Amino acid sequence: MSIVTNKELLDRAKAGHYAVAAFNTNNLEYTQAILTAASELKSPVIIEAAKSEIDYMDGHVFVAMLTAMAEKLSIPVGIHLDHGPSYEEAIRCLNYGFRSVMYDGSALPLDENIANTKAVVKAAHACGVSVEGEVGVIGQAADGPEGKQNGMIGIADPVECERFVNESGVDCFAAAIGNAHGIYKKKPELRFDVLAEIEKRTGIPLVLHGGTGIPQEDLRKAITMGVSKINFSTVMRKGFLETLADTLKNNPGDWDLMKMLTPAKEKMIEIAKQHIIMIMSDNKA
Ligand SMILES: [Zn+2]
Predict the structure, then answer these.
(1) For residue range 5-26, what is the model confidence (pLDDT) as tens digits?
(2) Whether the Cβ atoms of residue 2 and residue 70 lie closer than 8 Å to each other
(3) Parent domain of 149
(4) Closest by alpha carbon to 110, among 136, 78, 81?
(5) Are 204 and 171 in contact (CB under 8 A)?
(6) How far apart, in whole angstroms, are the C-alpha atoms of residue 99 and residue 80?
(7) How far is the CA of 82 from the centre of ligand 1 (A)?
(8) How far is ligand 1, taken at its centre, from the CA of residue 231, in Å?
(9) How far is ligand 1, taken at its centre, from the CA of residue 247, in Å?
(10) 113-125 pLDDT per residue, tens
(11) Is residue 16 part of a domain?
């Protein structure tokens, strides 16, 4: 199978009561690991890259590499821009051949976020590409999501979510519900009350960012409330780099790059598989 839109993947996931894992990538080994894990588990998967990662790989090279890899597999694969910072960045990714883009205007006033997202939706939909939006800023775990929760900062307002979805025309969106990017200092307390209200008011597939470190029971509870895409990034990079560090330490003077990278890649496959199973998309391809 080849590359499909996130809308196709997420509509199916929502109807089937599971979520599709979205893993960031920025190199060959990382991408191979994600696809190997998904393929072995017969799971749909989304491979995404943020602007810095796209610049690092070169967008054309990334899309060509991923397309060539995905064509050989019998699973559907999404190719998605993560946290697109501007209209221009979304357009750049349409040109590269992405099948889904995120526009993140969550730091802007709601009216501006809606207007910019709507412009991205208009251009993307004209190319058959799906769009993810964001309401309520999803911060960094290092900043302390627990502190932000106390002030209700970083928690999306369900009424604003409803307006955002109706006026922008997005296919799915990420709402801040106490989740954050990076490593949580303590167990994140997701606001399931807010999530339930958002689901009731919007009805479209929801996206959960900052999946690293959220317990399986909470991920699965979120899936029952309409979460259909869950992003995992930090856990993969941490596993890769820790394994690489160990391999280098245990093999002093061995400069065979492939030999040094292989255990790290295998660790990533193992981690990706664990997370795919956690969110129940195995055997859903
Ligand atoms: Zn994110």
Answers:
(1) 999 999 999 999 999 999 999 9
(2) yes
(3) 3-278
(4) 136
(5) yes
(6) 6
(7) 7
(8) 7
(9) 30
(10) 999 999 999 999 9
(11) yes
